[in-house]
Specification:
Layout lengths: L9 H41 L2 H39 L5 H30 L8 H40 L2
């Protein structure tokens, strides 16, 4: 019968190193997404709301898709990496698994908001026939929905930092 690899075997050490890289990258991309969402919510959206509606529609047509294309890869990477980390920590019963699971849930929530609200809203604002007189109401709704998305992203970033710290603390005590 084959013996399980020892905790200090090269294979086990390489797997731990890979897990640390994935965990740390998950925190980094989640934090980048959360920072982008917060910047959008506190700087970009207030600027849009101050603009003349016709001017806003023109700017949104120019910059809106590029903004989404910049933030979306971080959101996808966060969901994928957090899911991988959550699966790994839960199946191996490592510390921080609840925080990883909650962070993943928050980021899946941001992702679900895309088809629930943002896809249709953004497509409407990109439609050349969108009436300028409807811009104020749509941006008010967009602002509210984006606070939910931003809050979920910030919560995911904080929870993933807590989870990473819990895992690192355990690694520090077991390596002594």
């Amino acid at each position: 019968m084959a013996q399980p690899p020892s905790a200090s075997s090269p294979r086990v050490l390489a797997a731990r190193r890979a897990a640390r890289i994935i965990d740390t990258t998950a925190v980094a991309v989640t934090s980048a997404f959360a920072g982008g969402a917060l910047l959008t919510q506190t700087v970009i959206v207030p600027h849009w709301r101050e603009m003349d509606p016709a001017e806003f529609l023109s700017e949104f047509a120019r910059a809106g898709p590029a903004t989404g294309a910049t933030v979306f890869p971080f959101e996808v990477a966060s969901v994928v990496l957090l899911s991988m980390t959550t699966y790994s920590t839960v199946t191996s019963r490592r510390p921080g698994r609840l925080a990883w699971a909650l962070a993943t849930t928050c980021m899946v929530g941001t992702f679900l908001l895309l088809p629930i609200y943002f896809l249709d809203a953004n497509l409407a604002l990109l439609d050349p026939a969108f009436p300028p007189q409807a811009v104020h109401a749509e941006l008010t709704a967009w602002y509210r929905w984006n606070w939910i998305r931003t809050g979920l992203g910030l919560a995911a970033a904080a929870l993933s930092c807590i989870a990473l710290t819990a895992g690192r603390r355990e690694n520090a005590t077991t390596s002594r």
